[in-house]
Amino acid sequence: MSHIDIEITAESGLELLTNDEISRLSEHSKGGEYELFKKCVLAVLTSTQVTDEISFHEEQLKLFDIEVLQLNKGVKLKLKNAPAASLVDGKMIQGLKEQVFSVLRDIVFLKQELESNSRIDFNSSNGCTNAIFHILRNAKALRPGCDPNMVVCWGGHAIPEFEYQYTKEVGYRLGLRGLDIITGCGIGAMKGPMKGALIGHSKQRISNGRYIGITEPGIIAAESPNPIVNELIIMPDIEKRLEAFVRLGHSFVVFPGGVGTAEEILYILGILLHPRNKNTPFPLIFTGPKESASYFERIDQFIADTLGPEAQEKYQIIIDDPVAVARATQQGVLKVREYRKKNHDAYHFNWQLHIQWDFQEEFVPTHQNMAKLNLEADQPIHLLAANLRKAFSGIVSGNVKEAGIKEVAKHGPYTISGDVKIMSQLDALLEAFVSQKRMKLDADNYVPCYRVINPQSKSEPATV
Amino acid sequence: MSHIDIEITAESGLELLTNDEISRLSEHSKGGEYELFKKCVLAVLTSTQVTDEISFHEEQLKLFDIEVLQLNKGVKLKLKNAPAASLVDGKMIQGLKEQVFSVLRDIVFLKQELESNSRIDFNSSNGCTNAIFHILRNAKALRPGCDPNMVVCWGGHAIPEFEYQYTKEVGYRLGLRGLDIITGCGIGAMKGPMKGALIGHSKQRISNGRYIGITEPGIIAAESPNPIVNELIIMPDIEKRLEAFVRLGHSFVVFPGGVGTAEEILYILGILLHPRNKNTPFPLIFTGPKESASYFERIDQFIADTLGPEAQEKYQIIIDDPVAVARATQQGVLKVREYRKKNHDAYHFNWQLHIQWDFQEEFVPTHQNMAKLNLEADQPIHLLAANLRKAFSGIVSGNVKEAGIKEVAKHGPYTISGDVKIMSQLDALLEAFVSQKRMKLDADNYVPCYRVINPQSKSEPATV
Amino acid sequence: MSHIDIEITAESGLELLTNDEISRLSEHSKGGEYELFKKCVLAVLTSTQVTDEISFHEEQLKLFDIEVLQLNKGVKLKLKNAPAASLVDGKMIQGLKEQVFSVLRDIVFLKQELESNSRIDFNSSNGCTNAIFHILRNAKALRPGCDPNMVVCWGGHAIPEFEYQYTKEVGYRLGLRGLDIITGCGIGAMKGPMKGALIGHSKQRISNGRYIGITEPGIIAAESPNPIVNELIIMPDIEKRLEAFVRLGHSFVVFPGGVGTAEEILYILGILLHPRNKNTPFPLIFTGPKESASYFERIDQFIADTLGPEAQEKYQIIIDDPVAVARATQQGVLKVREYRKKNHDAYHFNWQLHIQWDFQEEFVPTHQNMAKLNLEADQPIHLLAANLRKAFSGIVSGNVKEAGIKEVAKHGPYTISGDVKIMSQLDALLEAFVSQKRMKLDADNYVPCYRVINPQSKSEPATV
Amino acid sequence: MSHIDIEITAESGLELLTNDEISRLSEHSKGGEYELFKKCVLAVLTSTQVTDEISFHEEQLKLFDIEVLQLNKGVKLKLKNAPAASLVDGKMIQGLKEQVFSVLRDIVFLKQELESNSRIDFNSSNGCTNAIFHILRNAKALRPGCDPNMVVCWGGHAIPEFEYQYTKEVGYRLGLRGLDIITGCGIGAMKGPMKGALIGHSKQRISNGRYIGITEPGIIAAESPNPIVNELIIMPDIEKRLEAFVRLGHSFVVFPGGVGTAEEILYILGILLHPRNKNTPFPLIFTGPKESASYFERIDQFIADTLGPEAQEKYQIIIDDPVAVARATQQGVLKVREYRKKNHDAYHFNWQLHIQWDFQEEFVPTHQNMAKLNLEADQPIHLLAANLRKAFSGIVSGNVKEAGIKEVAKHGPYTISGDVKIMSQLDALLEAFVSQKRMKLDADNYVPCYRVINPQSKSEPATV
């Protein structure tokens, strides 16, 4: 891969900064945020291949350099050793340029702006929701007055081709219905729905389709945002990212995935099971191709066994029928519209939904935190869901996040314990993920990063 | 395939008609044009599959019915037994609706409008060019004041997958450079560049990319316009269609194809070799993947042998390098821009290019007309090119057009004769097409529709 | 007034012409249409003063020259000795440029285009309406899909300041309600409503307000279109102009005026009284300031006496209340909307309204034609209205149109005769106009161009 | 004047607020800001008359009430006893609604937002400029990438009709050249240029003309923003308002006025005379009709006598020639463009211009502050200009601002003293203003609010 130096001028709302802001930006970008900023920008710039996603090497990252220039006219970035493929005839591809400035906006600018604002408070539930609104507003992701049409698609990045094709087909059917897409902005089930929707929109002559990718610093550097993403938003951590999804989306489609997808499912069930959210319409569909039916059977069984029928009522499973998924999604969106209209609620942000502090606070998956998770049966189901969510979150971290991988390398697998029956079901589910090769891209050599303390487990010796 | 009845209201400039116009339209659509109109609309409506192009059956055509309704408010179409796949939740897909009304506009409305205009005259060279301008203007395809950026892509519809991928890759590189695409609007090399450009445009955040498909009644019913086409234009016959390409385009890329592609190449060379066009810049690139290099070697050889080095100077061959093709195309476009600017010429229509009457008059490939083609060596090369073009045109007709196929079935293959050396080269070229399976989609059972009268030919017995 | 030479390039839909069209345009503009074309363009170019309307002198017209240049790129106009005030720093004011090309479009281009179209037929009622649609469509004045909001304002050009202020105030109130304005495009009651609406629109932040001026060659040269007019349309003669008003407008407001206004009133009453238009909603309001109340009392009396109460039901008189006028107008527009919606009728053109041939055929006010007008009482009232309209039309011509003035100078005043009672009322009305100084701008020296044969008339001697 | 209750929903960037922001807004609006907020909104709502500007009475203000409602959907205002003339058929006029929300944005929302931002610092020169940028950016008044075209027009509100007509004519000529207008947003010379430009823009078919009114709380309640203003910005005090003018504008036109205009002239001269601004192009034109020539002669003399020829070089005086003013303005704008382009400077904000702290700090015109102003001759001229500016500022306050009027009522006229020659010239200038009736609208009964300590003054006794 060849490299090149280039200067680019601001986008994404950074066209208008005071001299002080630019100066702080410049300083900040050289300081503590520098490495993260560089990583994220390089991730964006290496996503340019049409047919494949090649991530960058450490070597590249060392060579790559980025400098924030201060002009009276605004901010300019000077990139050194940027991947040449991000340019066309000496000019950076517009979509990538926008994504680069989204990184600057969210990683560097926003961070220090939030710090300077005494009203921003991530340490309370209400403050957290307000801060998320701030970030989304600053990214111009909130559009008042527009009819609800945002579909959040969740699912794995390491999925087989036939599942990818299915996500694309569903996206196509959603796009034909004028629906926009939000995903986690990587590959697999995060890319397929966008690609499909792009074709659907194009056939319906919709030229302003939105393909929103919401990511977080711990993930973006590993998973390049796919190039269809035309609105890239980087939330501070996984909890804020998950909240951004549910506040922004009007309907939710979950494709097969691994532990990350399970985390998302438990997250949303935990919220929906809270008594205050009982009556809020929240369309939630699990779907996959025929061949993946067993995946959702497994998940459904796990939910039935751990959280019970009340939880099962919160979602609908549709197998191998993209048109039915699209129709159900659209009907769900219409119900949301009606409900918010009746309640004089905003279309652009789901203020009504109650999210407990437990779901908002950053969960740091240390061995200690993982070990002391309360996974006993004698607690309200929305709390059990919350804790199961954390367990899955820890496993995701141990699988793919830099920090988690290091922890596990140092201290061995996480220990998770709790109610015997729940442990047994959890163990079975994780085992199924392993055998379905849903844990990591390099599935054949997967070594589990967790150990379920469950006397009945047949697989225990294998996980050590 | 399920069917459905539906009513749709006017688009494509047919929103505003006088009562008389609607009444004539309605009458006309029931009269002589009815069958053609039906066929074309059905062709449009059966192009909705994402992954494959299924053409319709005779049976379907019989069931399908279309009626023009006259309202004070405008024109409405009533479709009976339309393919259900053309609808989403009871509403016709916008892109298809626009294409349907483009058919109505060009096949029914325009035809009778041109008849009523005493100034339209298809029987002179100048009149013909003016009429083509009329048709393109009526289709809103001419946009004054826009910088030149239209790339015409020619090539076969029956091409192997790796050639298709190559056309897509070239289209992607053109799209990244902000160039728009014009093709013959079917599959293969007519679809690939559009699909690639769509992705390229999307990455550059160009939301108003143009994907123009120019077709003609004899072809559209057999080759559904692909759904990316957002401007469908139906010219009266193949000669007008070819002229529309060269008047509208600013740069020309030719991919591998069969006889049809050879016809296009001879057509454009015949024009460029005319002394009056000597100084007009006209970027013309032949390109294909590595594996198809031999195809253009063959063509190049044929041109060298029959028309000589002057003809060879008119084009450039680039093998297996999409980026180089895109760059050369863009440079060509800039040269065209400069030239027209200097000469106070229009950007939107190539008035300067001289096209002889010979290239404009409809050539009807009867056995008699084919037999009496002058393919002798003792004529100006631009006339020889013109006659060779007609020979290829006849073979295309005998291969895939309804009328030609019937003629050949009745009277046997066409006879083509002329200068011994030219005949021998023509024979060799055609033979190569046959052996490269470039003659028809069902290549293995191809029975030639022509006979080259060439004493040296080894292949002659095979062609009988 | 200083003069200047300038070249301007095409607008108003003339950007895209075939070479043949430009060539015919160029020829035509030098031929029979030359004088008329020049006059109209000069009229447009002399309307640039902010505070006053200065018409041009014969001397200026002689010096002024206009040439249509043919470029491959399109059409260009070369103006010699154009009024310098039409330019700002060497560039023609955009609004004037657009108006100049509207003149070219309607006077030169359209004329010859209509001639070349065998389907255009001004000699039948239906053909006439279709031709009017053609002209309006060509001028892009028809906009399908827009909600009805066009208010036609009629009234005199030679009105006192307080009446002018009143028309402005009414226009302001209409503009505040988002209504657009159509007038005859000169000064007085044709300018006031536009100026008022401009301010109203600006306060409502409506930036695309339409100020349509519909004129005809016999009038435009004498009455410069005021500079607010952003859509100038020139109909072939007074009858087509009147029909264009009623087909295009959704609501009608009549301000005080002279014989011309009376002509308009009789014209519309004649149409509305036709049995076929009985149920068509057609909002028609007569309004003026307190001081002008007597004007409409006089008109109302005349209608009562000649056409009777059925005619009086067709309109509403509102004195000195601009807000009430605006409200009634808007309610009328809403009724029209409902009615057309229910009847699947177009919003952009009133196809439903039946207009008799009598109202469409050009009435040439020769002495003979005026003398033989049937103004007897024993005919259907809609026919009587039609004939009274013609009588007024003749008087307008004798007052202000070049042809009429010459006729009267040669043969003396027109003679009008008929039913004794009607003649007496007509006589009284005309006398009132004379005494109210509504006949001509130079009111004090007015010499009537007509003679009402009415034995009871006290004023007869005076009119000779 | 009748009154009415109404609810209106947010505009001006307040469509998207967090629940916390709305809640703070609601609280704030009831608290300390309530009276000011009410006053300003009422000022906006009473500016609806076309022909005249009626300010509101104390009585009205008491009846009038305004409440900020908090909805999940956003913010809503509930107005009680609003002037009925601000509504059309029950809906508030869009332009007024926008202005009302601009008041809310700048008076209530912005204030508390700035307070919460630890980076905003009004106590340093750089901080002040950054804060002004913040306010303008928040009002969306900064548009990066647009060519310079903003003309600041200064001049009196209490001017005779012929001067008003002149400002309108100049505005018309500026508008014809595509220039936008910034004024202080009241009547007189603040309204005329906008009204003229509106007509000029309309003739040039410019539909997005900008008419920016920059005001401050101490003035807006007394001077309603005129209804043409389509961007209303309220700066915290007179110094910030003056800085906003010079940072935003590209060219400056000064019409005749009174002490306020003199203050503006001294302000800008003080800045331009600072050595660091020596080379910055800053087009500054003083202009008025023939009859007002003496006004600028007087001012020019005063500047010559006090600040000298260096100061006189900073401006150009053009008498009675609107076209020359417009041309000079446009040339000035082009020079600014060139200069900023060359220096890579922003077009949207004049960062380069150095403004001393002395011009930024709020000057509170107490008797003590006025008395101790250093008006001696032995100081750099840019400092003398700064102090003279303060003297004029105090007189404006004593004339028309609530606080100043009270001070003077209590303690008698301000005392101004200094260099004998300067005092004498100041005295003469002020006297001229009094005799030209430029001090107050009610000019005949003007009682001076100042006393120039100048032994030579003949007028001294009169000012007591």
From TrEMBL, chains A, B, C, D:
GO cellular component, one term: cytosol
Domain Pyrimidine/purine nucleotide 5'-monophosphate nucleosidase N-terminal: 7-113
A Pfam family it matches: PpnN_C
Taxonomic superkingdom: Bacteria
Molecular function in Gene Ontology: AMP nucleosidase activity
Pyrimidine/purine nucleotide 5'-monophosphate nucleosidase C-terminal domain ranges (all copies): 335-453
EC number: 3.2.2.4
Membrane-crossing residue ranges in chain numbering: none
InterPro entries: LOG_fam, LOG_family_nucleotidases, PpnN, PpnN-like_sf, PpnN_C, PpnN_N
Reactions catalysed according to its record: AMP + H2O = D-ribose 5-phosphate + adenine
Name by which UniProt lists this protein: AMP nucleosidase
Species of provenance: Kangiella spongicola
